[in-house]
Design a protein that fits this description.
- By secondary structure, the protein is of the alpha+beta class.
- The protein has one domain: Alpha-Beta Complex (Nucleoside Triphosphate Pyrophosphohydrolase), CATH 3.90.79.10.
- 19% of the residues lie in helices and 25% in strands.
- The chain has four helices and ten strands; from the N terminus they run ββββαβββαααβββ.
- The strands form two sheets. Strands 1, 2, 3, 4, 5, 6, 7 and 8 form an eight-stranded mixed sheet that branches. A two-stranded antiparallel ribbon has the order 9-10.
- β1 and β2 form a beta hairpin.
- α2 packs across α3.
- The protein is globular and about 55 Å long.
Length: 231
């Protein structure tokens, strides 16, 4: 991943006094580019993410990596490996798959040989109300045999395998820090008992883009998803 990343920042306070997002403690200022944007929306940058899986027919665990706490963008946050599509990778589905494989190798040391083996799971677009925006395509992939993740120690400094529910519980307990899209994906993944069950479900999906909205009302702000009241 480059100096920016595809996970959406989320705010709990309105502008101009916005101070908090889900990835940092209240009272801290968001990093440059993550601030609330009251003007014309910026164009989202194309990005790709891999939700790496292990467990086969018996269990479901996902790989999360912890971004360097010194990083300008989402320092210290636990995310799925991913990042922006490079210009030389082109555009369209092939470019997203190429970027997903590249980022997984760079950030987690896992090598995937076949881009077509990635299973498309979701597509999230950063809210128009945020300055730094990404159009992120999320893919599923099982951990290849005889490979184990290893972080680069620069962009990512730790990694861990979590059941989706365990990751959510660790976040709720303050043990790890997650952002909104990761939380929502983990909530979806928690419904499946095994990697095989998840992949069978995902192969039948028609993936539609999800565009959250940041809605400011008086002294409070909230993030709404399609289908939420008030969206």
């Amino acid at each position: 991943m480059d100096s920016t990343g595809p996970e959406d920042p989320v705010y709990t306070d309105p502008p101009p006094a916005a101070r908090a997002r889900a990835a940092i403690a209240p009272g801290e200022r968001p990093a440059p580019g993550e601030e609330y944007n009251p003007g014309a929306p910026t164009l989202p940058r194309q990005a790709a993410t891999v939700i790496l899986l292990r467990g086969g027919a018996d269990a479901l665990e996902v790989l999360l990596v912890r971004r360097n706490p010194a990083a300008r963008f989402m320092g210290g946050v636990w995310v799925f490996p991913g990042g922006a599509v490079d210009a030389e990778e082109g555009d369209g589905d092939r470019a997203h798959r190429a970027a997903a494989i590249r980022e997984l190798g760079e950030e987690a040391g896992v090598v995937l040989d076949d881009p077509d083996a990635l299973v498309k799971f979701s597509r999230w677009i950063t809210p128009a109300e945020v300055k730094t925006r990404f159009d992120t395509h999320f893919f599923l992939a099982p951990l290849p045999p005889s490979q184990e993740p290893r972080v680069d120690g620069e962009e990512c400094v730790e990694h861990g395998w979590f059941s989706p529910r365990a990751a959510l519980d660790a976040h709720a307990a303050g043990e790890i820090v997650l952002v909104f899209p990761t939380i929502k994906h983990l909530e979806q993944l928690a419904a499946f008992v095994s990697v095989n069950a998840l992949l069978a479900h995902a192969r039948g999906l028609v993936v539609e883009p999800v565009l959250p909205r940041v809605v400011v009302e008086g002294d409070s702000a909230s993030v709404l998803l399609p289908g939420d009241p008030g969206y």
